[in-house]
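Reading a protein record of the kind used here takes only a little practice. To see the layout at work, look at the sequence and tokens printed below.
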Amino acid sequence: MNLFNARIKSSEKIIASLERRIEFLKKRSNRYSTYRLILFITGSLITIAAYLISKELGWIITGLFAAVFSITVHCHNKLIMTIRRYETFLKIKTEHLSRMKIDWENIPEPIINQSPDEISIGKDLDLFGKRSLHHLTDVSVSLEGSLLLRKWLTNFTPDLNSILERQRIIKELSAKTGFRDKFLLRSRLISRKYLQCGSILNWINNSSEDELPGWLFPLSALLILSYISLFILSALEIVPSLWFVVFLIYFVLYSQFSKKLGKIIDESIELDGQFKKFSSLIFLINKYSFKSSPALNEFIISSFGQGAHSSVKLEKLQKITSALLIRDNQIFKLILNVLFPYDVFFCQKLIKLKPQLVTDIPFWLERLNELECYISLSNFTDLNPDYVFPEIESNLPNSFQTKKIGHPLLKRENKISNDFSLTKENEILIITGSNMSGKSTFLKTLGINLCLANAGAPVNAEYLRTSLYELFSCIKVNDSVSDGISYFYAEVKRLKELLDEYKNEKHLPIFFLIDEIFKGTNNRERLIGSRAFIKRLSELNGTGAVTTHDLELVNLSDEISKITNYHFREEIVNDKMSFDYKIHDGPCPTTNALKIMELAGLPVK
């Protein structure tokens, strides 16, 4: 907690410093605006006076005034860009602070919200959508990077080598605060819109449609040279006025290919912002040295090379699209193509460059998305210095030991941490407790931290040692009016999925989390069904926790050695419920439903 508080104070100091700097620069900008106005009025009056004295002096003063005014405007524009840079950087740092404090109102909305057909475990553990783990951790600059992070956080069939490799890279990258901030800053300064990797891929894959005959440029250049030469000779009255005939031939030729040229140009102009953002991020990556971080350095080199290879091609692409963007103005388009086969020249350069990018760009985009995930989880690591990387057990089955494990989506002032360990092979926990005592939150705490561990990220704990598990949950079950599915039947279907999971060939045990088992039916049938289901789970390879209000279920521990009882408790002080949200050994000794009803004013006798 001391590490976290120090990190908070450090962030607040940086934010305060940025705010003071921005205020100072804005005052300077206001002075520049005043100087520009004074300079314009003074310069105009002096210029008029100079012209009254002599025409030559007027031209000299006009030139001097234009130069001084241009320099002033240039300096002011640079200052405005500096202010924008500082303001963007301030916003990034403020968002980081909001993520640390779990201030959801000031954390940017997730790129993709939770949809109705999300997988059950994503809903159960609040992995997606607003106020979710994905919302808290995601700082991706592209839609595809955000989607990949979602996949990492739902890695329910983990691989040990992948987890350890991610841990190494995330640890090293979490120390590269300057690189991560510059990565986000550069992306936002170029464009506030997210990078659309899919649009770039579609553009690359449609290269077969962009074909132009090789003779088009030399013939167009020859015709332009001819009619310009003939026009000059005609103006000098050396030859007759034949230039217009040649011009018409060129016009007809250009018209024949104008539709295809327009399509190539429009597509490239539409993606110009995407190319600039993508290229700028690649240039930044290649600019940095990661030699002090072996795992990160290996990832960067294998992904983007030494820099020159990727940079040269992307520079060419950026220059071509920028050149085509210039002619988007209709007046420029006319002038440029009358004096030079501008469209044909740059379209053919683009067509020639595309095949060189067909292999490279999809690979770079894929690795860029992967880097975005590393940056998101490294940022999460840096913002939570008291979180720890879990120790993953590969040889010891069904092991789970943790100290002070907490829920990463809860504010620290409201968070209660617990010590917890599985001590038996294939152990099943039956957790009883009063309403609102913390049973469901505890299940979510275990599940969401396992998701972080499987993604290679640190967990909200002082210590965590765990085996590899395939994760399963049944916590937030929803009925469906449109499909005619009741709550109880939806829960039955979900629990049947758990048994079906065991029928598949599995190499890992299942870690299951079941909240309020069969609460959608009557007491008698719930008890019978719950006993049978838990007995069946005890025969299978896995471990997990089941919460219930049925105190009779705790007797299963007398029949089955794998079952252990835990509970959450409460106290009633001055007619108010008080919870410690701590997990305790044994079955729950109390209930509180009648007391809650009585305190609310309902009849209970």
Q: What stands out?
A: The CA atoms of residues 101 and 411 lie 6 Å apart.
